[in-house]
Every structure is written in structure tokens, then in C-alpha cells.
Amino acid sequence: MRVRFYLGILMSVFLMSCGFSEDVSAGKKDKSDEKVTLKIASYNIFTSDARKNSVKGNPEVSEQRYWGNSCVAVADAIVDIDCDVIGFQEVCDSIWGRRGDCGIQKLVADRGGKYEWFILSNSNPKDPIYGKINYATALAWKKDKFSIMDYGIYWIAGYYDQPKRAADAEYGSSNRHCLWVKLKEKKSGKKFYYMTTHFSVTMFNDKNDNTKRIYYPKAVEDNARYLVTYADEVVVPKDVPSIIVGDMNLVETAQEDAYNTLVSRRWADAYYIAEAKGGLGPSVTGCRSSVNNKDEKTLAVWKPDHIFVDGVEVLSYDVCQKKYPTRDGTLHYPSDHMPVIAEISF
Questions:
Q1: N or C: which end of the chain has fewer CB within 10 A?
Q2: What is the CATH architecture of 2-12+37-345?
Q3: CA 251 → CA 71, 197, 224, distances in Å?
Q4: What single-letter DSSP state applies at residue 312?
Q5: Per residue in 165-205, pLDDT tens?
């Protein structure tokens, strides 16, 4: 409770600056005759340290993979896909603009993207605004279309909403979390929840032998269970549309237990909804992948990035598998992941 109270005090100024206000029309229903259509996305933009590690000692990966060189390509991709709301993963201080001059917010704004950006520290719950961000998630929405009504963060490897994280997470990062906002579409007044997350991987270094790797699917299963349980029971009321996006580090045919947990509550996989109605885009139909190989030239064969929805209609689903120019003009996949995009209405 103390953490929620502290978050409330710290964020009040931010919410007001983003157009937050009390819902003075309480008691009035949303304009049900106005259907809202939105283009949404999930995008893992590849944190700076991971970029350095991918270049180090690998002749197949060029220095254009560094954030300082790829940042312009990531910004071009964000503006190009032109989504209304985007959930990001792997955001760090340099990507957010706290260090250096390559902050994604400014780069996107310089290219005409008019977004409101939102992040909370995933490393320091006692200082959510100024605490360090590392492998964090973030959200961006078109500032002229939405007002923020509420927000929050909770940890998906153990405890939720406490100034300590995942003491029971034997493997996986204790900083894994879900960032969420409640938004209001200004024209219609309709409200919805948007959540972004990033699961642990299933392979970890052996604590007794760093040369060995251990397969530990329970990390992803724990993340899935905590994510949907807390979202279902605490965050999202039953009658409000909601979207969960993220890099779940799982493929439904390989990590079946974790995937089945994700769809065990209210949320359904937007990919399969679109597929059933012939709404898959040409990219995802041709190659069902949302990641590229470390050689920067070819696509991998799996899609760990997902969009799950409740209370909305899915109109289409695709993956942006385009390359964009880096600092030296080289066409390049901006990240090791690619934007997963859906069009929805409610």
C-alpha cells in the first residue's frame, strides 16, 4: 500500500501534464455509437548493452548495430508504422535519453512523431520516476488522441507492487515486470487498458559453471502466471477492453504450458483471431517471424512477440520486416526484433 501511495504522489504532476483529469462525466456512458479503430504494436528495441554484446567478437555483426548508429533506424521504423499506441521492451537509460544524445523520444519527435511517452523504473520501486531503468518496458501513444487515466507497474517473477522483487525467482530476472496504463480515447470517451511486458528467457548460465547453460522453462511459466493473474484480478475490470503486448520469449508450440497460461483467463491471441478471418498481413504470412538472426541479414523462424486482447475486435495482424538506414546509410534491421502490429476496434 505504501508503494501505491508513493507512486500516486510522484505521478500526479506527470498525469496532469499528460492531460489526466478526474472523469467529470462519471455516470455517463461512453458514446457507444462511435466505434474506435486503433493501430497498436509491440516492439522490442534491443537495449544498448545487448547491442554491444552482439557486436563483440562476432564478425557477422557490424558496428551499425550499436545504439548510437541504429537509433535513427529505430526512430524511422516507429514513425513509419504510425501506430496509435506502442508497447516497448528493452529500454535503458541511453535509449530513453538520460545518457548521451540518442534518446528515442527526441529522435521520433524530430521525424514528426507526436507521442506521449511513459516509463517507470523497473529497478527501484522506491523511486519510480528517477530510478534506474534497465531492460525496462515503456509505452507511447499519440498525444492528440488519448488522455491517461491511470497507470501502474507490477513484477511478474514473484511479488507484486512491493519495494522488493521476486525473492522466489530462482532463475530469471527479478526486474521482469508489466507496465500498464488506462487510456481514454478523446473523441469517443471510450477507455481501455494497455499493458506491455518482457518475459525471462528459458536458458540461464549455470551458477556453478558459467560455461554451461540450463534450460529452465519455469521462469517463463512463472512470468505468464503472475502476468495474467494480477491483470485479471487487480488491474483490469471485467467490462473494460484491454490489450497485453510484449516479448514473451515463447512460441506457443514450444512453451505450451506458459502459452496456455496466457490464454487461460480473458485474453486471446490476436494472431489467431486475425488468421481465422483472413486478416494476416503479407509479411507474417510469408515468414511467421518477429526476430532476425544476429547476422543482420536473415530472418529467424520464430515469433516470441505477441499481442493478446480482450473486449476488442481484431481486424488485421502483421509484422514490419523492413530494413531502415543507419547512421552511415546502411539498410539494416533496426533491432533484433521487429514491430508486431494489429488493427483493432471496439
A1: N
A2: 4-Layer Sandwich (3.60)
A3: 28, 15, 13
A4: S
A5: 444 455 556 778 999 999 999 999 999 999 999 998 877 66
